[in-house]
Design goal:
Keywords: Membrane, Transmembrane, Transmembrane helix. By secondary structure, this protein is mostly helical. It is built from 2 helices and no strands. It has one domain. Helix 1 packs antiparallel against helix 2. The protein is rod-shaped. The mean pLDDT is about 85.
Length: about 120
């Protein structure tokens, strides 16, 4: 009689462990889906924002170049000056890129991936 009870308890324990493993597996699949979706939507938002800012920058650059060209009575000089401004900005960004990009990106993704649930 005692052996039958132990056998039944062992089978119940086996079933409960299987249910626990299945529940954990479903949880981690859902958690992974959540992380992937947050990352994807954040990247899509950043991409759309970058596209819009690029369009705005192009139009402002053309307007600035034309304005400087009217002021100097030479459109080529206006576009050259705007080009030099962008070249100087590119050199500055190159030298401080780690501080601008790495810190904020690491911080944002750390909040998403390392959040305790």
């Amino acid at each position: 009689m005692a052996f039958e009870e132990i056998k039944e308890n062992a089978e119940d324990l086996k079933q409960e462990v299987k249910n626990l493993i299945d529940a954990n597996l479903r949880y981690y699949k859902l958690w992974g889906f959540k992380i992937v979706m947050k990352s994807t939507t954040m990247m899509l938002k950043l991409f759309l924002l970058a596209v819009m800012l690029t369009i705005v920058t192009v139009f402002f650059s053309i307007a600035l170049a034309l304005g400087i060209g009217y002021w100097l009575d030479n459109f080529a000089y206006g576009f050259l000056i705007v080009g030099l401004i962008y070249l100087i900005l590119a050199i500055l960004v190159y030298y401080v890129q780690d501080k601008i990009v790495e810190g904020p990106m690491l911080s944002r993704f750390s909040k998403i991936f390392l959040k305790k649930y």
